[in-house]
User: Fold this.
Amino acid sequence: MLNVLETAREFRIPVTFASTSVYRGDSPGPVAEDGPRNERSLYVAQKLYAEACLRSYALMFGLSGCSLRIFNVYGAEGAPFQIIPRIRHAIRNQTGIQLTGDGGQIRDFIHVQDVAEAVVRTVGTRLEGEAYNVGTGRGTSMLELIRLAEKVTGVHIPLEMVPAKGEEARYLVANPTRSDMGLGFRATTKLEDGLRAILT
Assistant:
């Protein structure tokens, strides 16, 4: 990250850093950028380090840039371990799907086109290293997601509930106020519409 920032400083190139949802996720409701962080994840620690470096370069050298804390992004493609690609696989192959715990884990699913729009909003905007949540502000549980997929496809998806393998955040929903105010960004794709485009 430091090499990227040093090059950006030298050539005066703005930096938009794709970060992640860094939050602890133990309290219901949308979380703002100053919410409690997940300190038990090295992945999160690395993202926060990169965010801090970007913020320092912005303050020390006037580098324009920001960090986008992207929540659960989905689209036509995705890693096979992610929930929506797993749902698509189950529908196409007429198989079931495993959910960990009770399936009540709540996530903020944001369409990739909305994420792209958030990135576009940073272009040409003078930024000072701030972090912005990129999410919809609406939470959906894993069980609700399955039922919504069944609704848009008309296909029943058998479920198998299995124990969680480790700690898992219960609630990860973005408070989008800062990105709305600072970037003029709000997600517009409804989850039902996004799922219909992917699954049917």
Observations:
- The chain has a mean pLDDT of 96.
- The domain at 2-199 is CATH 3.40.50.720 (Rossmann fold).
- Residues 74 and 84 are 7 Å apart (CA to CA).
